[in-house]
Model the fold of this input.
Amino acid sequence: MFRGASLLKVGVIMATLALGVVICAVVVGVALRGEPGRAAEVATKLLGEPPWYSFGTKGNAAEKSSSEDGAPGYSSSGEGSSTQGSSSDSGGSAGQREGKAKEAERVAAASEGEPSSSQSTMSQQTGRRTSSGTSSESRAQQDQTNQGDQFLPAAEEADWPQPTQRELRRANSPRHYELLPGAVMGLTIESIGIYDAPVFDSDGPDALANGIAHVPGTSWPWSNTPQRNVYLAGHRMGFRGTWSRMLFYNLDELGAGDRIVLRERSGRRYEYRVSEVLVADPTDAWVMGQVRGRDMVSLQTCTPLFTFEKRLIVRADRV
Done:
């Protein structure tokens, strides 16, 4: 008799548990059919928070923030020093560097202690420019170009992040790059510490973020023409955390006789010597054209620091 009562109680308990499981399944099924977006919420309330719920990108965000200050992929020897004996004795270069250093130190002191929220905002802006290529400056250039004006590439805005002390040390030290996939050749300017900076056959945002842009339609060193003007453009400040950052920061220090070398992937080298330096307006597209009887390379960046209203053009003739 007692045994029968015990079995009856066990049966009632098991039936109650089975009914509870059925109710849970029905509730979850209704949630999945009617409101897919609430399925995780219903499951969490019924069954408890799953162990993978807290898995996120906090670590990745920290890594991104810590890497914003330096450009990846190239080695900078003598980070704590200024130029290491590779600068030429061009007239005025020492005074130019000293003047730039003082101005940069002033703005770097303000930017060195920027809060992380400011860096995050700038990183988001940079990401938008690099991925979409439709920043306000590029849209303005496209609109003006459609009106019949041709603008020089690699325009920079005055509100880009100012250099930190660490970035200034890197810009004033030798920087060794490598030929990334897609790069046609490398650019070396020993006097300002640039070695094998990658050159891409594009003047789009991706090329300018990863190195130096060769303006499509202009000459190559191997072009079969009576004269050549290999037109290359790079950023003066550029995107923080990329190879464009301060790549042509010291381009204004080049003077007559300084050597510029272009190297193909096959290893063939083309050597040039600086012959003239000039300042042009953003609409002076004539500087990209060939000059009768000259075989030259033209390097362009924005000037002056930190307004970038003009374009600095360095021309070098083949030797």
Observations:
- Strands lie at 75-76, 175-176, 185-189, 194-200, 212-214, 228-233, 259-264, 269-280, 295-303, 310-318.
- The mean pLDDT is 73.
- The longest strand covers residues 269-280.
